[in-house]
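Replying to the earlier thread about multi-chain prediction with a worked example.

Input:
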Amino acid sequence: AQTVTQSQPEMSVQEAETVTLSCTYDTSENNYYLFWYKQPPSRQMILVIRQEAYKQQNATENRFSVNFQKAAKSFSLKISDSQLGDTAMYFCAFMKHGNAGNMLTFGGGTRLMVKP
Amino acid sequence: NAGVTQTPKFQVLKTGQSMTLQCAQDMNHNSMYWYRQDPGMGLRLIYYSASEGTTDKGEVPNGYNVSRLNKREFSLRLESAAPSQTSVYFCASSAGTYGNTIYFGEGSWLTVV
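Result:
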């Protein structure tokens, strides 16, 4: 079974600064996908960024980028130029190839507070 | 764009009561999922349906049943609610191909007293 660990329960950052959220995972699979989801106070789950394991290039989406270290099984999220609207819970998630379906396994989350 | 729609948004149940959470998606997705999120935790998979006509257990299926009514709709039933089932429930869907993004509904807050 896969496990996903987010070791930082809470973090804070000043507006306009950069913050990095950590995620590690444990799997015996060689091919898989990794995701970061954002959950603002509204509770809506919003996809931030995704990474395919066989792609060495780190994914980027505007101010969001990842540092994917496959050998270390690490998948951190970097938020540049933090904005007040980035305040949310952030969840790292793992998807392996499943014959009967493709499901996400989530970490416990990191609560990010962006301070003005 | 409706996406994934869940009803009800909020519900309070007494221990032992039953209820059904309804979910519908308008994205013509093959796969649908039910997750629960307990306070301060990540989401855990209850049941999923890889395609119309199939359902399978996830990580925490005990106390729940599901029905994939058609391609659009996937319901979650609590037969005899228990306080341990107090949680926020999320329905989700995806095209079903490996790696596809999973899209979530807005959640249903369920309290069992």
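The mean pLDDT of chain A is 92.

Feel free to reuse this layout for your own posts.
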